[in-house]
């Protein structure tokens, strides 16, 4: 199996769980396009996540995945940024997309999950989802403001630790994609996440003392931000951050016109009309 990605800055991870299933994940700032060769006939491509890194239980979530069969028998699969899909060739797995026939047809798949337990947004005023208001939405990118561990389950035990994320400077704080929620036996809320640093999946604390949004959601009070990234930050003509127009060095003070939501992240539109990332590891309100 081989793959390539859309841009030099995107990253793709492929993990073969068994003879019939391959997990494909896209991280960082763009979609990842995988090309599967010598895999066999694909019967399903599902958007979601395994319950734990060792589990065989797949939990479907909302999302669309486009894939097609090529004339040489290989498959091209595009995984949206910060997303995970499971590609299967199991004959007993029903195919909802009839992709096995025409080699040049693109297909889109979609799956849903129980939103009462794995909601896409925090609790409403009546508490219907059972989540506190500080809980971040699923498919939101968060980062660790203090050192923490990732665990195999929601019940944190030293023997269940998967990875350690030491406290880091703001510009180097580890980022995670929120995939879902879980409660420990003592009732503590946990995030089920995927690390955008190493691709590992597990559980971390949902405490606002340790975890926060990795991207600004609001405008700075005085409409000014400063670049804090050591490498500076690029400006682009659109919120998709394509077509670079300028580069601002660390310490540059910029004036913001508005905040724009873009897929799983946010952007700041500057007063000159250009767009930059609203990542808290790259800019800060001043």
How do the strands and helices of this protein lay out in sequence?
Elements: E1 2-5, E2 11-16, E3 21-27, E4 32-36, E5 44-50, E6 58-60, E7 64-69, E8 75-79, E9 84-88, E10 107-110, E11 141-144, E12 148-151, E13 161-165, E14 175-183, E15 189-195, E16 201-205, E17 211-213, E18 224-227, E19 233-236, E20 244-248, E21 253-262, E22 265-270, E23 275-277, E24 283-285
Antiparallel strand pairs: 1-4, 2-3, 3-9, 4-8, 5-6, 5-9, 7-8, 7-10, 11-14, 11-17, 12-13, 14-15, 15-16, 18-21, 18-24, 19-20, 21-22, 22-23
Biased composition (Low complexity): 93-130
InterPro entries: DUF5776
Protein name: DUF5776 domain-containing protein
- How many H/I helices? 0
* Amino-to-carboxy terminus distance: 47 Å
Widest beta sheet: strand line-up: 1-4-8-7-10
Secondary-structure element pattern, one letter each? EEEEEEEEEEEEEEEEEEEEEEEE
Uncertain regions spanning at least 5 consecutive residues: 5-10, 92-120, 123-128
User: Domains counted in the coordinates: how many?
Assistant: 3
Q: Strand-residue fraction? A: 35-45%
Fraction in helix:
under 10%
Strand tally is 24
Average pLDDT number: 78
Form type: globular
- Class per helix and strand makeup: mainly beta
Main sheet record:
5 strands, antiparallel
Output the radius of gyration: 20 Å
């Amino acid at each position: 199996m081989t793959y390539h990605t859309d841009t030099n800055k995107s990253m793709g991870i492929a993990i073969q769980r068994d003879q019939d299933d391959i997990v494909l994940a896209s991280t960082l700032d763009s979609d990842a396009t995988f090309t599967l060769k010598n895999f066999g006939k694909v019967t399903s491509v599902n958007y979601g996540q395994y319950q734990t890194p060792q589990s065989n239980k797949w939990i479907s979530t909302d999302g669309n995945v486009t894939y097609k069969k090529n004339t040489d028998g290989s498959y091209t699969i595009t995984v949206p940024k910060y997303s995970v899909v499971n590609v299967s060739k199991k004959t007993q797995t029903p195919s909802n997309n009839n992709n096995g026939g025409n080699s040049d047809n693109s297909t889109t798949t979609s799956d849903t999950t129980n939103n009462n337990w794995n909601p896409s947004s925090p609790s409403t005023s009546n508490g219907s989802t059972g989540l506190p208001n500080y809980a971040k939405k699923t498919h939101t990118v968060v980062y660790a403001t203090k050192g923490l561990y990732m665990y195999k389950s929601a019940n944190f035990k030293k023997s269940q630790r998967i990875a350690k994320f030491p406290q880091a400077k703001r510009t180097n704080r580890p980022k995670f994609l929120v995939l879902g929620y879980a409660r420990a036996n003592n009732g503590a809320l946990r995030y089920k996440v995927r690390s955008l640093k190493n691709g590992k999946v597990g559980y971390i604390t949902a405490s606002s003392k340790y975890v926060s949004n990795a991207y600004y959601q609001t405008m700075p009070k005085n409409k000014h931000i400063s670049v804090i990234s050591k490498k500076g930050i690029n400006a682009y003509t659109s919120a998709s951050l394509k077509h670079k127009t300028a580069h601002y060095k660390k310490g540059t003070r910029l004036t913001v016109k508005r905040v724009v939501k873009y897929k799983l992240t946010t952007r700041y539109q500057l007063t000159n009309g250009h767009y930059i990332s609203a990542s808290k590891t790259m800019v800060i309100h001043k």
